[in-house]
Amino acid sequence: MPWLRKPREFQPLWKEWDRNAQKCGLRHTVYYISGDQYTGEWQDNKKDGRGVEILKNPASRYKGFWKEGKRGNYGILSIPDPETGKYKEVYSGGWVNGLKEGIGKYNYSENEFYEGEWSRDQRSGWGRMYFRDGSIYEGEWLKDKQDENENYYEGYWKGGKKHGPGKFFYFDKGQVYEGIWVEDIPKCGTIRDFQRHVATDPPQYPVPQVYLADTCAVLKEAQSRLFPDQAKCS
After folding, report:
1. DSSP code of 9?
2. What is the pLDDT along the chain (234 residues), one digit of tens a residue?
3. Closest to 167 in 3D by CA, of 214, 234, 231, 115
4. What is the signed CA dihedral for 120, 104, 113, 131, rounded to 10 degrees?
5. Strand (E) or helix (H) holding 124
6. Taking a C-beta distance cutoff of 8 angstroms, is the pair 167, 181 a contact?
7. Cis (ω within 30 of 0) for the bond into 58?
8. How far does the signal peptide extend, from start to end residue (predicted)?
9. Contact (Cβ atoms closer than 8 angstroms) between residue 189 and residue 219
10. What does the alpha-carbon distance between residue 192 and residue 180 come to, in Å, rounded to a whole number?
11. Is 25 helix (H, G, I), strand (E, B) or coil?
12. Would you say the pTM of this structure is higher than 0.70?
């Protein structure tokens, strides 16, 4: 019986080109028709690992990690300065599936920025917002807005930490702490009930009345020890 050779199956050239173009590992810059470019690591033809992406429209640069073709883990997003043309940092922090997620810092302007928790590209969770007028809000955020029904701090700051006289409102517990802070640690103060009747998770018993002969003197003494140059009763 004669040997019959099976006709060779021909495939379109684009399939062979695509197979040869499958990217894996570290690659040099890949340029796109849109003007975008990427330099970094690949896995299964997707950006995966460490890399730098430069987008043309809107103009931006991302330096950081990728996961299955999307920004993931940690990275820094920058945009060009309209005056100098140099890239200036806008956001640095966590990413998941191409969205801001976890802990990160976002610069809205030179004197206004937010640092704290993010969820699906929005400020959500605990964070601090530094406003250009010098005021600071620290507390809970929900869907990019301040959640006024949650805990927050108002008072003095130093180096991004609570430092000096201040108040911390525990709306979930229905209490407020007022006293002196040193580098985010409360050193001396008083705690009392505050709107306990609307608190979401109040303690079983209210704060008992404490009778002190001279509360102001106690706080003044503590403040004079911690801040000798500004001793006064808050």
Report:
1. P
2. 556 666 667 667 656 666 666 777 787 888 989 999 999 999 988 999 999 999 999 999 999 999 999 999 999 999 999 888 899 999 999 999 999 999 999 999 888 999 999 999 999 988 888 888 777 777 788 888 876 656 778 888 877 788 888 888 887 788 888 888 888 888 888 888 877 776 778 888 888 876 666 767 777 777 777 777 655 554
3. 234
4. 80
5. strand 122-130
6. no
7. yes
8. none
9. yes
10. 15
11. strand
12. no
Question: How many residues comprise the chain?
Answer: 234
Which residue carries 């100098």 as its tokens? Answer: 84
- Both tokens of 225, joined, read 């020890």
Residue type, 47: K
Tokens of 25: 């590992």
Q: Which residue has the tokens 């199956």?
A: 9
Provide the token pair at 221. 């003494």
Residues 190, 195, 198, 204, CA torsion sign: positive
Task: Give buried/exposed letters for 66-98 (b at 16+ CB in 10 A, else e).
Answer: bbeeebbeebbbbbeeeeeeebeebbbbbbbee
**Tokens found for residue 204:** 């079983």
Which structure tokens are listed for 162? Answer: 């609570």
What's the token pair of residue 151?
A: 């805990």
